[in-house]
Amino acid sequence: MVYSTTITRKGQITIPKTIREALKLSTSTKILVELEVGRKEIKLRPHTDILDLAGTFSPKRKINVLEARERIEKNYERV
Length: 79
Known about the structure:
The chain is elongated and about 60 Å long. It has a two-stranded antiparallel sheet with strand order 1-2. It has one domain. It is built from 2 helices and 2 strands. By secondary structure, it is an alpha+beta fold. 0% of the residues are buried. Keywords: DNA-binding.
């Protein structure tokens, strides 16, 4: 897909709706803009952060935090 857009005085561009929908971009979505060195083109892709995944997965079994901490301390030395 190739679309045409214009750069504003502030240096902003509008990403066409079909591209925003295909990439599931909303107004709060962070994106990465990558400049291809040696080429006159850029790549846009959604910015995924590990923190965005917080709370999306459930453990297979309940975890006792104190027990988990004891296991960690038992198996790993402090540096």
